[in-house]
Structure formats: structure tokens, C-alpha cells
Design brief:
mainly alpha; 2 helices; elongated
Length: about 60
Amino acid sequence: MKTNVGSLDRTARIIIGLAILGAGFYFQNWFGLIGIIPIGTALIGWCPAYLPFGISTCKKPKA
């Protein structure tokens, strides 16, 4: 797996994931567990949804 999630993207994913988890906890709803997905992709640095589109938010190495 080649890393395709950059640092700004990782930060946003963690914040959004925590917000979803928090909303699920606040509203006492199991759908809040969906927040684990963006947190997980941020932690491993790889997003499978980016593959079909060829997206990468990582910085390109300078040549």
C-alpha cells in the first residue's frame, strides 16, 4: 500500500471522525461508529476510495 493521504488530509479526517463519533455518542446512536473509518484511514495513511480516481494528497517529492 502506497501512502495517498497527506498531513492536512489526515488532520481533517481525524477531526471529522471524532466529530462523528461524538455525535453518535451524544445522540446514543450506533451510526456514530462510522467515525472509525476516517480515523482508521488517517492513521494508516491510505484511503482505498482514492485508488480508482488516482487521487493522492501527499506532497510530491522535488526532482
